[in-house]
């Protein structure tokens, strides 16, 4: 829908001849301006009338800048290295891209789809990045400006001309178009990238501005130190030179820290639950273990007197801890084990020292054990495709088996998994 901007009418009388000139300016949906001039000449002497209408469509200076900026972005290093569609197109006709293809891109569509308007605007580009075909229906990146061969080469090219600008309000009101207009005050830029928050993808308040060369980037940073830069809302901005390698490292570090934060939160939830389940008087310590002792041999000594004890032991360790499933049962169970061995506990043909741990030693044991178990539970839940109860109902790995063993604790169920792994690889760490 067009909108009338102005209309001026002027009439000149010369004897019997009356000439009326009307000039009307309208703005079109594609932001171009059409000037229509109508000349109405009437000769009253012989009642002769002639009317002539001329129309001219021009581009506003602002629209022209937006068209140049958008198309130069399409052909920029930053975009061409990652835009698979354009990379496929440039090999079809010696790099030439028809305007009919470019006008299907949404951001260009929002400016104009008129090929003549686009060509007229691009004729005023001074970057040297583009080459216009004589037919005026296709363009290409100038052959003297080859595309980087890889992401690594691109990062090297951008390293010294990228500025990190922080301090923008992290709101939806800050858009790419507004940022482009803001940076125009400080000279031309090759690319403006809004950094997003991890997961939420909301604007973080930071922007990476790529300048045409290192000199321009450094000038921008130095000027910002002498005269602090303020955004439209009054926010002061902090500017620093940043290479893409550093940026990517910071992004990875931020994601890593966020993931660790979520891991710690889940682990603390497991830890809180485990701390409420401590069984006092239920831990036995063994010392002087034989080099070839195994958890299976340890269990054989205790299973006749208790339900499926948890054994914290790795082959070759000099010590082992036995955790029972009921509070205040360690002394009674250990007495029965020793009685069965005539006062001795022999494992793998070697007598070991045994005792019930109490007091501060017991408190420290549960603290360390629960921290380890909480972390392992978080890791277990994060495994891709992991479902509690096993793979499917058919093999009954966890479904029916778990149902038949509801009286057993989570620790006992985990211990069954450990037994299987220890037989295949006795050197693996035992989960606590």
Write the layout of secondary structure elements.
Blueprint: E1 3-14, E2 17-27, E3 32-43, E4 48-59, H1 61-74, H2 77-80, H3 84-90, E5 97-98, H4 99-102, H5 106-109, H6 115-122, E6 130-132, E7 138-141, H7 151-158, E8 162-166, H8 176-184, E9 191-196, E10 203-210, H9 214-226, E11 229-230, E12 236-241, H10 244-275, E13 283-287, H11 295-302, E14 310-312, E15 319-323, H12 330-340, E16 346-347, E17 350-351, E18 353-356, H13 359-381, H14 399-404, H15 410-424
Antiparallel strand pairs: 1-2, 2-3, 3-4, 5-7, 6-7, 8-10, 8-12, 9-10, 11-12, 13-15, 13-18, 14-15, 16-17
Tell me about this structure.
This protein has 432 residues and is α+β, with helices and mostly antiparallel strands. It contains 15 helices and 18 strands. It has helices at 61-74, 77-80, 84-90, 99-102, 106-109, 115-122, 151-158, 176-184, 214-226, 244-275, 295-302, 330-340, 359-381, 399-404, 410-424, and strands at 3-14, 17-27, 32-43, 48-59, 97-98, 130-132, 138-141, 162-166, 191-196, 203-210, 229-230, 236-241, 283-287, 310-312, 319-323, 346-347, 350-351, 353-356. The relative contact order is 0.06. Residues 386-432 have low confidence and may be disordered.
